[in-house]
Design goal:
Order of helices and strands of chain B: EEEHEEHEHHHEHEHEE
Number of helices of chain A: 14
Oligomer: heterodimer
CATH architecture of chain B: 3-Layer(aba) Sandwich
Radius of gyration of chain B: 17 Å
Number of helices of chain B: 7
Strand order of the largest sheet of chain B: 6-7-8-3-9-10
Shape of chain A: rod-shaped
Structural class of chain B: alpha/beta
Helix content of chain B: 25-40%
Largest sheet of chain B: 6 strands, mixed
Structural class of chain A: alpha+beta
Number of domains of chain B: 1
Distance between the termini of chain A: 28 Å
Shape of chain B: globular
């Protein structure tokens, strides 16, 4: 080997060129391999932390125009109501090739009657407005309530008791043919302040007044119809639908059907401040507030997969509710499910700040109040908090909302169903493997309907994957360039160092050197140069790769995990790349050395296959 | 003195992919130590082929070649070349990237002679062939043809064998160097007891030989014995 090296060193330009090019080739190869491996490992490392969730929205078949009378404009207004021939269900989303990790599910939320607990709205005291008022009243003067007229509230049956004796403005706003009100008669109605301001003569008087400048809302009577729906979501017959809203109070009125209904509705209206929403799901991440980081588990743990599957009586409870009621992790919460809403998410009815967009007809078509249909106790395994910065979002969780396994609710298909609608992005979702959105949409397009619209959220996975895929393409180019360059270099320089040295081989053989010794003599120097070049190149490639990683460290892609705590509220954390591994450098070195030895060995064997006599004779002729 | 080498009706055929060429036909002869043999003939007559067979660089395709009574196919030809027979060529075939001294040391390195000893011996051989000390560290391409051939002879001597085979050793030399080399070869045979077999078409070389064989179309005949 010494002679071999000595002879190589005596052609320094060729040797250094070979060494330099081998270093470069090994560097390219190692750099490519390191980047490729790092990209692959980074993706694998974060695969579990990213989640791809899709939401579903059913597109209306058509819109029906409803004419609604507006007493202020004395004209009908057009109200558009979405029409659906039927509601699609999560089962319609099961098609070949749909690899769901969770769901698809359409969530109902249940309204639990919780008189012994302090709810958010109750905790805020009486200052929070009452949604509806059930009251007897008399007009201040005989009047036609086709504009804002003054009435005196004589008796509060249900609602804010402080309104008794108050004179307020009233208008049968949506009735094109209202009936006269007489000041010596007493009337009763379910009413409330809606989004219609005082208008008509009352408005003009107010405007003429020097003192009074406040233009408030007028009271509007509501229909006494029942909100109760049949299990399929259709509305049963109810005599109070589109019927009379204002009733004269006469002797025995409260014995009549209308009177009883008003009393029963007034009774249910008192309940809402004691109500708490309960949402059933099959995976916490399917709830958008948790998925997008608006809600996060600050204490305890998430409901486990097993608990979801088994329908265990465990729940996630909001921090405010736990604090208001002096509860802690592991305590039980008694749940009395009373109503079912299959149209909205809890956040659209139970606003986070405590007010409630409540229902007005919580009685059956016979006028009887809807009762609790399921009672059970849930153990709190996790406490979650909410980032209020997103409270206005349609995905916001409801105030006091409990999250429970869907399977834990026996009557989950809709007892006391009071609201029903198609799948929407706030009530229907599913989880699919990361990176499979396009595949899902292709599969759905092949067999699905265009009446369902999907929106996907992947926490930036696509962006990260795209970046890493681009990086991997570059790395593969580097790797391929390195491999090709290595092979070409090995062939070219083995030709110079071995094939072109056939005379040396022949002379060595003529001097009695054995074939094995000849092979060793010729290959050892070549192999040593290959080894040296590949090691230096691999080390350089590894270091450059590590430097590139260090430069990328801290680059934010996007990540949020609902169990990660408050520090993630900005929804973004840095995705750290996988640790640098020396494995590619080692593999590249081994590959290059193996390739070098193999190619050199092959060339050497070709020289050795021929007898020195032939070789030397050829040389002599040359 | 017995015959060191004995050829018995040997023949040799060069076989390429597309053709066969008969280079030697039924060649029989013998060689012994202490004598200079010249094999003359025209180019392509087969004399170099014959010499290569004698050197153990290949084996005859026909007949038998005995070295010290043993058939060449049965002996370790590598060991034979390393320890018994050395070849010098018209084109010298020195290692171009080794110095003069290293070239001469090379055969001894194969024999695992200690570095110090092989250096001393190499210097002695180089001195014996009359090469000045100043050239020992030179590369072969930096010295003249005659000097290179002397290095080749020194390298042949360094192997320690007693058979010296020379293929047109003066072919690339001027007349002055030619005489020096011929004298050197004769001296090796007559004083050092080598069997020197020279392939040549140079009359002066043939004249200096003790025995002259003529080679024509692959057949050998005694010209002067």
């Amino acid at each position: 080997m010494r002679n071999s090296l000595k002879q190589m060193m005596r052609t320094p330009v060729r040797t250094i060129l070979f060494l330099g090019l081998m270093i470069f080739a090994a560097l390219l190869m190692t750099l490519g391999a390191c980047i490729w491996l790092k990209g692959t490992r980074t993706m694998a490392q974060y695969e579990d932390r990213f989640m791809t969730v899709g939401t579903v929205r059913q597109i209306p078949d058509s819109f029906e125009q409803e004419l609604v009378w507006n007493a202020e404009t004395k004209d009908y207004e057009v109200k558009k109501n979405a029409q659906y021939s039927h509601y699609y269900t999560p089962e319609d989303l099961l098609f070949d090739g749909a690899a769901y990790i969770a769901g698809p599910e359409q969530r109902a939320f249940y309204i639990s009657y919780q008189p012994e607990y302090v709810t958010m709205s109750k905790s805020m005291g009486d200052g929070i407005g009452w949604a509806t008022l059930f009251a007897e009243f008399s007009p201040v003067e005989d009047c036609m309530p086709d504009e804002s007229v003054k009435i005196e509230i004589t008796k509060v049956i249900g609602g804010d008791p402080r309104l008794e004796g108050v004179v307020d403005y009233f208008c049968d706003h949506h009735n094109p043919t209202p009936e006269m009100l007489y000041k010596d008669k007493t009337y009763v109605a379910m009413m409330g302040h809606q989004a219609s301001y005082i208008h008509g003569r009352a408005y003009e008087e107010k405007m003429q007044s020097k003192d009074e400048v406040y233009i408030g809302l007028e009271m509007v009577p509501f229909s006494l119809e029942s909100d109760l729906l049949l299990p399929d979501g259709s509305r049963p017959e109810d005599v109070f639908r589109s019927g009379q809203k204002i009733f004269e109070v006469t002797d025995g009125f409260y014995e009549t059907e209308a009177g009883r209904r008003i009393l029963n509705l007034a009774q249910t209206a008192l309940l809402w401040r004691d109500c708490q929403p309960v949402t059933g799901t099959n995976q916490t991440s399917l709830l958008m507030p948790f998925y997008n980081g608006m809600a996060y588990i600050c204490e305890g743990r998430d409901i486990s997969e097993e608990e979801y599957e088994k329908g265990s009586k465990v729940c996630l409870a909001p921090k405010a509710f736990m604090e208001n009621n002096g509860l802690s992790l592991g305590d039980s919460v008694k749940v009395r499910l009373r109503y079912t809403d299959r149209k909205m998410n809890a956040g659209r009815k139970f606003w986070l700040e405590g007010s409630i967009n409540f229902y007005t007809g919580l009685v059956d078509t016979d006028g009887n109040p809807l009762e609790v249909f399921e009672t059970s106790e849930y153990t709190v395994v996790g406490i979650y908090d909410v980032a209020f910065s997103d409270a206005e979002s349609k995905f916001a969780p409801g105030a006091d909302e409990l999250v429970v396994p869907m399977e834990s609710i026996e009557a989950r298909d809709g007892v006391n169903l009071i609201n029903c609608g198609p799948m929407t992005d706030t009530t229907a979702s599913f989880r699919i493997p990361n990176g499979s959105i396009d595949e899902f949409l292709r599969g759905w397009a092949a067999c699905g309907t265009d009446k369902l619209e999907f929106t996907f959220y992947d926490m930036g996975y696509s962006r990260l994957k795209e970046g890493i895929d681009n990086m991997k393409v570059v790395s593969l180019v580097l790797l391929a360039a390195g491999v090709i360059l290595t092979v070409l270099l090995l062939f070219f320089f083995s030709h110079l160092f071995i094939t072109k040295q056939a005379q040396r081989t022949a002379v060595e053989r003529s001097l009695g050197m054995r074939k094995a010794a000849c092979r060793w003599s010729m290959l050892s120097g070549f192999a040593l140069l290959v080894l040296l070049g590949s090691v230096l190149g691999a080390v350089s490639g590894f270091r450059i790769s590590a430097k590139v990683s260090a430069a990328n460290a801290g680059e934010t892609y996007y990540e949020t995990a609902y169990t990660a705590g408050a520090t993630n509220l900005d929804h973004e954390i840095a995705v750290e790349e996988a640790a640098d591994s020396a494995m590619p450098a080692v593999c590249c070195t081994l590959f290059i050395v193996a390739a070098g030895v193999t190619i050199g060995w092959g060339k050497m064997n070709r020289s050795l296959r021929r007898e020195p006599m032939q070789l030397l004779a050829e040389r002599a002729e040359q | 003195m017995g015959n060191m080498i004995e050829a018995e009706k040997i023949g040799y055929v060069y076989q390429s992919k597309y053709q066969k060429t008969k280079a030697l036909t039924e060649v029989s002869c013998s060689f012994e130590q202490g004598r200079v043999y010249a094999i003359t003939g025209k180019s392509g007559s087969g004399k170099s082929t014959f010499l290569s067979l004698l050197a153990g660089l290949d084996v005859p395709t026909e007949g038998n070649l005995y070295i010290d009574g043993k058939e060449i196919r049965e002996i370790d030809r590598d060991a034979y070349r390393m320890n018994q027979a050395s070849v010098i060529y018209q084109a010298f075939h020195l290692f171009p990237l080794l110095t003069v001294l290293e070239n001469v040391m090379f055969p001894m390195e194969l024999q695992h002679v200690a570095k110090k000893e092989r250096k001393e011996r190499a210097q002695a051989y180089l001195s014996k062939v009359g090469l000045p000390d100043a050239l020992y560290g030179k590369m072969p391409n930096m010295i003249s043809g005659g000097e290179q051939q002397r290095v080749a002879i020194a390298r042949a001597m360094a192997s320690g064998g007693q058979i010296l085979l020379a293929d047109e050793p003066t072919g690339n030399l001027d007349s002055q160097n030619e005489a020096v080399i011929v004298e050197l070869l004769c001296k090796m045979a007559h004083e050092e007891n080598y069997a020197v077999i020279v392939v040549t078409h140079n009359d002066k070389v043939a004249e200096a030989a003790d025995v002259v064989y003529g080679m024509s179309d692959g057949r050998l005949e005694v010209v002067r014995g």
